[in-house]
Amino acid sequence: MIKEITVFSYGDSNLLKTWSNVPYFFTKTFADDGVSVNRVNVEPNRLLAGL
Which of 12, 31, 35, 39 has its C-alpha lying 20 to 30 A from 3's C-alpha? Predict the structure, then answer.
């Protein structure tokens, strides 16, 4: 059984509005089943992008 996963998404996967809500429901399903979910937002940092 899977105990831990890492999910890379463009945007915050904790937010329902992110990427047509796919990352949200994907990670929520794993978390509801007791899997530890590491969320990695690969969206560029807006503050650093302007440098």
Answer: 12
pLDDT in tens, 5-33: 999 999 999 999 887 899 999 999 999 99
Give the DSSP per-residue string, 1-49. ---EEEEEESS-TTSTTGGGGHHHHHHHHHHHTT-EEEEEE-SPPHHHH
- DSSP tag of 50: T
Q: Are 33 and 25 in contact (CB under 8 A)?
A: no
Pair 37, 5: CB distance under 8 Å: yes
> Domain coordinates of the chain in residue numbers?
4-43
For residue 47, give the amino acid letter: L
